[in-house]
Amino acid sequence: MAFSVRGWRRARILRKAPVDESLWRETLARYRFLTGLSAAERERLRGLVTVFLHDKQIHGAAGLELSASMRMSIAAQACILLLDLPEDWYDGWVEVVIYPDEFVPEVEWEDEFGVVHVGKEVRSGEAWLRGPVVLSWADIGEDFADGVNVAIHEFAHKLDMLNGDADGYPPLHAGMDRALWSGVLGAAYEDFCRRVDAGAGTAIDPYAAESPGEFFAVLSEAFIERPEIVRADYPDVYAQLSAFYRQDPYARQLAAGLLPAS
Ligand SMILES: [Zn+2]
After folding, report:
1. Which residues 6+ apart lie within 8 Å of 92 measured at CB?
2. What is the DSSP letter of 259?
3. How many angstroms separate the alpha carbon of residue 128 from the centre of ligand 1?
4. For the whole model, what pTM was predicted?
5. What is the Å distance from ligand 1's center to 2 Cα?
6. Ligand 1 mean position to 158 CA, how many Å?
7. What does the pLDDT look like over 25-62, one tens digit per residue?
8. What is d(CA 132, CA 246) in angstroms, rounded to the nearest whole number?
9. Is 100 helix (H, G, I), strand (E, B) or coil?
10. Which residue, 91, 96, 129, is CA-closest to 6?
11. Rounded to the nearest whole angstrom, what is the distance from the C-alpha of residue 205 to the centroid of ligand 1?
């Protein structure tokens, strides 16, 4: 009975390592997308954050010292995605590495002539299959509320990678239609690429045009932070993301008075 072992373990963590009340309030107030959660949702999020802080190793890199408040910010941004998902969907990896600012990972790849290159590309986030999530504190420490959130982006890749590569096809729940998911996200991705190629301005980060995997991660950021943008541009994608995350951030933000009534 894996479920009851998990439940027992969870109860023990919540009892032994509860999160600090004032830090928790501060974290809830820091991010606009945490506004409008019901009391039950806040309590569930708090439980997820407590377990995340217990189970994950969150390290500062390049001399960055992480305070308890910084750790909790990271955990809250990770766990908002997990709010209505199975609790074990962040299992299988432990490390979160935080750089003070954008970082330059050394990436090796082999070209068509068999020559190995070392790439130095500036990044603000990375997520490795069964490996760490790497983030830049400068990009996640405060809420820009613009629909771009590198932390949510990388943790969305982690969910996508539950069934292999970050390809925009995470494991779908029973009752969700795989063909519908592929059709809706595929059509929206093609439309988005056309818009970006045509130089059309878009409220959604143009990085989403990189690949179907990036499209899913970028749309997940916007879905949580600025759901009205996803809902207006791609209502079918909004519906699929809502079914996947089992959340309706648009309704939540509307009820909280963050959005104009349409
Ligand atoms: Zn990405």
Report:
1. 130
2. S
3. 10
4. 0.91
5. 32
6. 10
7. 999 999 999 999 999 999 999 999 999 999 999 999 99
8. 25
9. coil
10. 91
11. 11
